[in-house]
Design goal:
mainly alpha, 4 helices, 0% strand
Length: 127
């Protein structure tokens, strides 16, 4: 019986996580932008025949950027709730740091994308 309850709780925890994913993409405009970019990168990756290792790098970034966006959104929601609309300097710092995490992962993704895709695009259009 304990095992059954354990698995039931694990399944329930997945449902909470999927609800969080739905909330992220339905309520966070930047997350929807990330999703569009992910779709474009997938199309570009197939078109340019990127290698298995390049796909691995791209897929990791497909997870990291939305994950940091989710953490940023969670911190913002908690901070806004905690301060009741009045932004304390510490709350502002926490929100700014969370936003910085998203910015840094997005910049890393752009750099990685440039390293992967630019040589292939240059080769395709220059020769």
């Amino acid at each position: 019986m304990k095992r059954f309850l354990y698995f039931k709780e694990r399944i329930r925890s997945f449902s909470y996580a999927f609800q969080g994913v739905r909330t992220l993409f339905s309520e966070t405009p930047n997350a929807r932008i990330h999703l569009v970019i992910i779709a474009l990168v997938i199309v570009l990756g197939f078109w340019l025949h990127i290698s298995r290792m390049e796909w691995i790098a791209v897929c990791i970034l497909f997870g990291v950027v939305p994950a940091t966006e989710a953490l940023n959104s969670a911190i913002e929601k908690l901070a806004d709730f905690a301060c009741g609309g009045r932004i304390h300097p510490s709350i502002k710092k926490a929100k700014d740091l969370a936003a910085a995490a998203v910015l840094l992962t997005a910049i890393a993704s752009v750099v990685a994308g440039a390293l992967i895709f630019l040589p292939k695009l240059i080769e395709l259009f220059v020769e």
